[in-house]
Amino acid sequence: MTANEDQEMELEALRSIYEGDEGFKEVSPVSFQFRIGNLEDIKAFILDITWPETYPETAPEISLDAFFNNRISAETKQMILSKLEEQVEANLGTAMMYTLFEWAKDNQEALMENHKPVVTAVALTSSSDVTTTSSTTKKREKKEQLTKAQKRRIINRTDNKGELPRGWNWVDVIKQLSKTGGKDND
């Protein structure tokens, strides 16, 4: 069989085995992600595996560069990759994806035994810097907000076309009357 036929057969097998499995994701016909462990598990990790054109005769490309794995130290990632490379060498020339995934699931505790979550460094800033930047952003984002009562008053003043009725502002009416004068009492 050619490499492409082997790949097609293995792809079909993977689809049928992992159909409905939330831990398996087919990124493309030659690229896969498999989550080892539950989402809540601090020792969970995601394997990114990509097939080269000549797979299974050549080793697949295995990576732990997914964002999900950012909390895993570089030493732990390197140890997991070296153990997986040993499994790849043992299965070279055969369809090995299922074997790799299941081996990683079975050996998750051993692979992550030295795992210490990586804490990302956060740059500290003074509180005065934070307040000045937050107050300027608040000023920019601030839009005129009307209360419900103000909105009701506006709606009550307008007719069904959205126009204000004639004489709605009584102050203007009184100003006009004072200028023109009222009815003469003859």
TrEMBL record:
Q: Which InterPro entries match?
A: RWD_dom (IPR006575), RWDD4 (IPR042770), UBQ-conjugating_enzyme/RWD (IPR016135)
Determine the domain of life of the protein's source: Eukaryota
Boundaries of each RWD domain copy? 9-111
Q: Where is this region: Disordered?
A: 129-150
What name does UniProt use for this protein? RWD domain containing 4
SUPFAM superfamilies, sorted: UBC-like
Q: Which residues cross the membrane?
A: none
